[in-house]
Design goal:
The chain is mainly β and 82 residues long. The chain is 0% helix and 21% strand. The protein is built from no helices and six strands. Strands 1-2 form a two-stranded antiparallel sheet. A two-stranded antiparallel ribbon has the order 3-4. The protein is globular and about 35 Å long. The termini are far apart.
Length: 82
């Protein structure tokens, strides 16, 4: 399944090798200069999400999903919830 262009009105980040700004999409914590908080790119929308705001992680890969998108089919393997 491909990442859609928009999810609930939110433009998803392009899957073209570029990376979004390292700011948590949910709480807006600057993750670039904060090495105390684990973070990952949401497998659904493509934005960064910190460990405090994620809606689940994939135990095999460490992939995460933001809480807003944890029931999306692209996040089916993100089964470890906080």
């Amino acid at each position: 399944m491909e990442r859609p262009d928009r999810i609930n009105g939110l433009k998803t980040y392009p899957d073209d090798g570029t990376l979004p700004s390292e700011i948590c999409r949910v709480c807006e914590t600057d993750l670039a200069c904060n090495d105390q908080v684990a973070c990952a790119i949401c497998v659904v929308c493509g934005y960064w999400v910190c460990e405090l705001c994620d809606g689940g992680t994939d135990p095999a890969t460490g992939d995460a999903v933001c809480d807003d998108h944890k029931h999306h089919p692209l996040a089916a393997n993100c089964t470890e919830y906080r």
